[in-house]
Amino acid sequence: MQTEGLPAFVRRAFLVVVRFFFSCENYYIYEKTLNDANELQFTPKIPNCTLKIVSTPEEVDELIAEGFHINAYLDISGTKARISRKAILFCAFVGKELAYKSWIAFSEEAKRDVDMLPYTVDFETEACLGDDETVPKYRRLGIHTYVTIKRYQFVNERGLKSKLTVRRDNIAAQKTQSRVGSRIYAEGRYLKLLGWKSWKEKPIGGSN
Predict the structure, then answer these.
(1) How does DSSP classify residue 137?
(2) Strand partners of residue 203
(3) Where are the alpha helices (DSSP H) in 85-161?
(4) Can you state the angle between helices 57-65 and 76-84, rounded to 10 degrees?
(5) How far apart are CA 91 and CA 116, in angstroms?
(6) Quick one: 30 exposed, middle or buried, by C-beta within 10 A (0-12, 13-18, 19+)?
(7) Are 202 and 208 in contact (CB under 8 A)?
(8) Which of 127, 171, 178, 206 is at 20 to 30 A from 140, Cα to Cα?
(9) Contact 43, 185 (CB under 8 A)
(10) Sheet harboring 22-32: ordered strands across?
(11) Helix 143-156 × helix 171-179 angle, to 10°
(12) How far apart are CA 57 and CA 52, in angstroms?
C-alpha cells in the first residue's frame, strides 16, 4: 500500500488468494559456474546506487541504525530468521532507499525460504539464488543485472555453482540471465491444488 498504491495491493492480494488454492506454473532452471560477465558493462544507470551484503542478523540492525529504509519491503524478524538459516541478503539502495533485494541460500532449510520449488541443489557444491524484487520505480535501470552478477561472484568465490529458477513468462528475468551467461539445463512444472502439490522436471533436450 505504501510503496505501490491500492491497485497493486489488490492485484497482489488476489494472486495470493488464487495461488493458495490452485497454481500451474512453468519454469526454466538455470545454472552458472563461472562469472565471466563484464561488470563495468552492467553498472547501474543511476547515481548514488550502493550494494549491501547482509550475512548476520546484527548487520540488519546496523543498516536500520545507519538510516537505510528496509522496513517497507522486508519483514525484519523474518529477515533475521532467514539469515540464521544460512541465507545471505543482497540489497541495492539509491541513497538510503531500498531499490532491489534478493537472496542466496546455502542450506536446504534456507532454500525453502528463498525458492519453494523442490528442484535439487547439492549444497556441498552449489547454492540457490531466489526471491528477488526490484522496487517498481527503479526497474529498467540495470540494478537487477548488476546485483545478479555480484551474487554469482559471491557464490563463485566460495567455490560453488549457482542455481535458480525463472518463470517461463518472466521475459525480463530471462533476458538478464542470458546477458550474464547463465545456462538453462532443465524445465520444470509446478502444480498445486489445495494441499496437493506436484513438481516435474525435464532436462533440456531430454525425454519425459
Answers:
(1) G
(2) 186
(3) 108-114, 143-156
(4) 150
(5) 21
(6) buried
(7) yes
(8) 127
(9) no
(10) 49-54, 87-94, 97-105, 126-134, 161-167, 22-32, 183-193, 196-203
(11) 50
(12) 13
The CA–CA distances, whole Å, from 122 to 34, 83, 106, 188, 191 equal 17, 19, 10, 18, 23
For the segment 123-176, what is each residue's pLDDT rounded down to a tens digit?
Answer: 999 999 999 999 989 998 999 999 999 999 999 999 999 999 999 999 989 998
Which of 29, 20, 16 shows the shortest CA–CA distance to 183?
29
Matching residue, cell 545454472: 31
**pLDDT tens figures, 17-40:** 556 667 889 999 999 986 555 555
Q: How far is CA 40 from CA 46, 112, 142, 182, 202, in A?
A: 14, 33, 11, 18, 35
In angstroms, the CA 37 to CA 152 distance is 10
Provide CB contacts within 8 A for 134, sequence distance 6+. 99, 100, 143, 144
Domain limits, the chain: 23-203
Protein fold of 23-203: Aminopeptidase (3.40.630)
Grid cell locating 101: 533485494
d(CA 202, CA 129): 20
Q: C-alpha grid cell for residue 99?
A: 531499490
Closest CA to 164 of 136, 194, 128: 128
